[in-house]
Amino acid sequence: MIRLVDVTKRYDETLAVDGISLEVPTGEVCVLIGPSGCGKTTTLRMINRLIEPTSGLIEIDGRDIMSASPVELRRHIGYVIQSVGLFPHLTVAENVATVPRLLGWKRERTASRVRDLLSVVGLDPAEYGDKYPRHLSGGQAQRVGVARALAADPPVLLMDEPFGAVDPLTRERLQAAFERIQREMRKTVVFVTHDVDEAIRLADRIALMRAGRLEQYDAPEVILDHPASKFVHDFVGTDRAIKRLGRTRVADVMRADVEATADGTRGIDAAACAGTRFMYIVDDDGVLEGWVDCRVLAAGTPPEEAGTRVDWREAAATPDTTLKDALSRMLGLGFRDLAVVDDDGRLLGEVSLAAIEQTMSAGDVHVSNLPEGEVLGAPVADEGEATT
């Protein structure tokens, strides 16, 4: 557990942090958020003494952080920053192994830990271990940064806008990877961001700050439904029901019992479509290639004209996709149902607009942009033509 009691940081006459008190329970994620200059990064950096507090108490698992040297303290706290900070002259494996080596781990134990962590963050150790940071994309480098922070299995992880410097698609994938890692490892995390949607998605508790003070510290659902002040209400925004969808993943509401065929449209007829709305088309490995609208087929349209060919990267969601992102994709594509695939495009099921609308019902908000009976995708005449 991390505990801050009346923590203050003063620079001459300026109060950067003014009497912050909060507790982060073991295994939970606390997200610090607020306007620029509100003191969130200063608060984060006081926890590992990159910035020394002027007054107040900071404890980690009941121990005052001032009782240990800064170097010793930081060896037991993982730290991830926006610019990653990988050592350019070291390989990926060597970067991840930095802290275990400083702690005197044996070579075999270190090598095993590096392999395990690269796999955890979605990087093949055989492919990436010997590469240098200059060979990595921004998202790959950020994953290595997370692996390095976790290398010595620290109980506490500090993250300062770690996903802020990547494109939106990579950011969504990194957020999903972080959620998966946190479910497995249950670290105590303090996470700084300026993105409300990211905070709502990732946090167990949100600390919303303004001018160095704590405005509200609560679970995301409480902040969305019961903002403590007009400032909190305005900062979160009026689309709270939509933001609430960022707390639920597709895996929580998807259904897996979908019909699929690996024979293309050739093996599809009205009998094969009986009892289902869409027949999905996959290749021999189960990768989504498209679908046939069974209602269109039942109306007498030939199977090859009732089919829609797609790129699964653009026309599907993964189980870790939030319902907010899934809804956005549905509305953008004009779909009432969205296929769900794994990271390699293999079909897992589908998520429906009705399921998302039911999740939103707690906020008494309903989506009616699409007319009843809207087809999943417009059929194409040429089976080989992709629809985006």
Kindly provide the radius of gyration, computed on alpha-carbon positions and rounded to a whole number of angstroms: 24 Å
Please give the CATH class of the largest domain: Alpha Beta
Content-based structural category: alpha/beta
The largest pleated sheet is described as: 6 strands, mixed
**N/C terminus separation:** 47 Å
Strand content: 15-25%
Number of spatially distinct domains: 2
Question: Mean of the pLDDT scores?
Answer: 85
- Strand tally: 18
Q: Could you describe the 3D structure shown?
A:
- The chain is an alpha/beta fold.
- It has two domains: 2-248, 3-Layer(aba) Sandwich (Rossmann fold); 251-382, CBS-domain.
- Helix content is 33%, strand content 24%.
- The chain has 17 helices and 18 strands.
- The strands form four sheets. A six-stranded mixed β-sheet has the order 6-7-8-3-9-10, with helices on both faces. Strands 11-12-13-14-18 form a five-stranded mixed β-sheet.
- α5 crosses α7 (138-150).
- The protein is globular and about 80 Å long.
